Amino acid sequence: RKLDSERLRELASRREISVIDAVHSAIDALERQDFLEGLTGDYRRLRDDPERWQELRSEREEWDSVG
Q: What is the CA radius of gyration of the chain?
């Protein structure tokens, strides 16, 4: 396996960006991934609770009828 610093330089070079911009992009991607995984978990917990899931569906139906 290559050193991380070498991998990072190669990634930046392929994308024609600076190494620090590659680091920023990686951080942004990890933050988005964490957010989406959290959101998925939240929805899973809602679906696992029939009463709360029905409340959400009812609220969505109300919002969909506004307008």
A: 21
Number of domains, the chain: 1
What is the reported pLDDT for 42? 97
Q: Each residue of 39-59: pLDDT tens digit?
A: 999 999 999 999 999 999 999
What average pLDDT does this structure show over 16-43?
Answer: 98
DSSP 44: H
Neighbours of 46 (CB within 10 A): 15
Burial class (CB in 10 A: 0-12, 13-18, 19+), 12: middle
Domain span at 37: 4-65
18 contacts: CB under 8 Å, gap ≥ 6: 12
